[in-house]
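Minutes, project check-in
Item: structure for the 528-residue chain
Input as provided by the requester:
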Amino acid sequence: MKRLLICLAVFVLLLSGCGHTGQSAEGTHIRLSDNSITVDGKEITNDSTQAVYSARDIVFYLADQGFTYGEGEKADEHTQSEADAHTVVHITKPGRYVLSGELSLGQIAVDLGEEAETDPDAVVTLVLSGVNITCEVAPAIIFYNVYECCSSDAETATKDVDTSKAGANVVIADGTENNISGSYVAKIYKSYELSEDGTEIADSKKLHKYDGAFYSKKTMNINGGESGTGILNIKAENEGLDSELHLTINGGIINITSGNDGINTNEDNVSVTTVNGGELHILCDGSSGEGDGIDSNGWLVINGGTLTAQACATSGDAGIDSDKGIYINGGSVMASGSMLDRIAGGDQTYAVFGFASRQNGGSTYTLKNAAGEAVAAYTPTNSFSYLIVAGDELAPGDYTFWQDETQLAGSQANAMQGGMPAMPNGEMPEIPDGEQNGQNIPPEIPEGMERPEKPDGEFPQGELPVMPEGEMPEMPTGEPPAMPDGMTPPDRGGGMMGGNRMPGGETSTTFTIVKGGNQFSGILPAAS
């Protein structure tokens, strides 16, 4: 009996140890090491027909190749010997792979073949379970070919995408810390056409271009474990976490420090970056001279979780940036930058604070309620001009706003979005794709509002009236036309705001938050 108890105790300890390191997770276990990589306890093979094998064949931007090789500059180049120092761990079959250990010069590359894009079974899940990977010439983790669950058709694109069946999946195992440090690959040509004089590239097709330290050519999901305590730290020479189509973050704790965009989803007018949960903290350190916190070439949708995003301190970039619109439906947001992108709508109350001068970063900005109690505090580290905050803490009511111990004052207006006056509920009318670029088709007018009357006479679509030579049309004088209830005309002041400026108003030390969108401008110390 005593021997049985001892055996049981040892068994429990073994299970406990495995659980702590994530090794109890189901799947193929890949243990990384500079000396010996193992797969399920056996030394990795170099046989490319196996599900997991290693090679020294990393894709990178080769130095001294001339202008017909690609678009890279000197800073993007690497020598063959630099590349050969890296070990690539290839994953070629569907399944769940648990990664642990350290690879000081290497890469994890997932490629199930070109046919995988249309195969719903071509799904790979990488479980990060205490892994440290550094790559100095390319992304440290990259998904090449897996199943693509979504369409890239711009005509049917929508902000509401379902990525649950994506072929590229990442799980940050509970109780583990994972460090990914990566570089990028500048554009390498697959083919090209020269200009008539033969000195420039007139047209080209891409063979390789991977901007992020953690990169996927297909839609990708990032998930936490059951308790969401796993940590993923990404240190990026260029961009941080990238997907060529959609990216959905469901959980885990993700910290990104990047030289350029912290997150980028880059299919124009299609990509959706979705944040459903977890903690996401992004700092663009400006080492590339520019960069947004999050940059979506389509939509950015925030449904939950905690997000802090800081843009490059020295460029005109935004904490959160989206070409098709930002929607904040839930969660907590703090975003700072020198540019303000359009917040198109959502259910979560938000506030935009526009400062009269650039803020240096490092100070704490606190909202205090009418009783003088601090309800929210934000401490951006980068310098910025605009601070966006959203969350349940922004309950309707009157607040004071403080920079450290200094009380601030500003003017208030309805939120401005995309250079147009905000609707009373903070939403913008939807503008059909392709109908806002010179086609003279007005957006749909929301219910309860009337379309302004046209001037006498009709002009053919896309044409302007011809004026007699040397004459200009007479401009109206006097007061501007009245705006509908709940709308405010834009101020004509200057300042960087993506072409937008908030309407002016009386300066006050009271900041009144209403449900929906709130915007404050000209913020400066109350005593000045």
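Outcome recorded: The longest strand covers residues 124-134.
No further action items on this chain.
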